[in-house]
Amino acid sequence: MNDSRPQAADEAPGDVGMTDIPRFVPLYVQIKRLLTQGLQAGEWKPGEPIPSEVELARRYGVSQGTVRKAIDELAAENLVVRRQGRGTFVATHHEARTQFRFLRLLPDDEGGEELGSRIVECRRLRAPVEVARVLGLRAGEAVVCIRRILDLQGEPTVLDEIWLPGARFRGLTAERLAAYSGPLYGLFEREFGTRMIRAAERLKAIAADEVTAELLGIEPGSPLLQVERVSSTYDDVAVEFRRGLYVTRRHHYFNELS
Q1: CA of 209: how far to CAs of 67, 141, 224, in Å?
Q2: Largest pairwise CA distance in the chain
Q3: Best label site of 69, 153, 171, 208, fewest CB within 10 Å?
Q4: Is residue 4 included in any domain, yes or no?
Q5: Which stretch of DSSP H or E encloses residue 60?
Q6: Phi/psi of residue 81, nearest 5 degrees
Q7: Is residue 1 part of a domain?
Q8: Are residues 180 and 77 part of one domain?
Q9: Are 54 and 203 in contact (CB under 8 A)?
């Protein structure tokens, strides 16, 4: 990160790295943007600590309270994690608590959840029109398509079709996926430098076709919940289009609004 400092509300823009921030933006928001730029640039890697509030306040020439407010917002957005007595760390998809952050399917009996993943296929191909549009790619640009089955409580429950930009995920193969154990977003984060920050979803009820029914071990025509997700990394850049087909015989979709 550069050594530029945020300007106060009555200062004219001009510092390197801050020229794109209007002067009326609150100081803590400017600090938040600088910290986000550092995360995006890889100055602090997932799982690593960021400097203390005192150090950051000294670096940017602002009060510790201003830095604390900026970090509070980053924590609320799950970009960093505060750990009592240890400091603030860059959030990572490898943490157990994030396993179900993007998978909102919960068992009806509210018991423990066992999660298993099986790759059906992984191939590179030219982006279909819909996928290219969602991911902001040129027509026919290379994409990676992954199909996998998630087993919940020992039963096939989710059939995922995942589309990723080919240039960003160069080298992602079925063999590489098979050799990896852990959350898929953790693999994207660690080996491809792409961290999923937020996602937008839309849901629709559909009936299972014959191919889907066979993969999920259900009868053709059985009800499914179709969940389409667009996941974005820093700066709201779309880096994944996912279509999941959920069996809700023993599960339900849960989301908490605030």
Answers
A1: 53, 29, 10
A2: 66
A3: 171
A4: no
A5: helix 53-60
A6: -130, 125
A7: no
A8: no
A9: no
The reply to whether 6 falls in a domain is no
Instruction: Report how far residue 213's alpha carbon sits from residue 230's, in angstroms, rounded to the nearest whole number.
Output: 24
Q: Which residue has the tokens 């025509």?
A: 221
The residue length of the chain stands at 258
Cα 173 from chain centroid (whole Å): 20
| Domain CATH code at residue 48 | 1.10.10.10
Let me know whether 111 and 220 are in one domain: yes
**Token digits of residue 139:** 């027509």
CB 215 within 8 A of CB 149: yes
pLDDT tens across 128-143, in order? 999 999 999 998 899 9
Tens-digit pLDDT profile for residues 162-211 = 999 999 999 999 999 988 888 888 899 889 989 888 889 999 999 999 99
**62 and 142 fall within a common domain:** no
Among candidate residues 90, 121, 143, the one where a domain is terminated? 90
Q: Residue 66 is part of which domain span?
A: 27-90
Q: What is the pTM of this model?
A: 0.77
Do 105 and 60 fall within a single domain? no
156 vs 247: CA distance, rounded Å: 8
Rounded Cα distance, 242 and 176, in Å: 20
Ranges in the chain, pLDDT < 50: 1-3, 9-19, 100
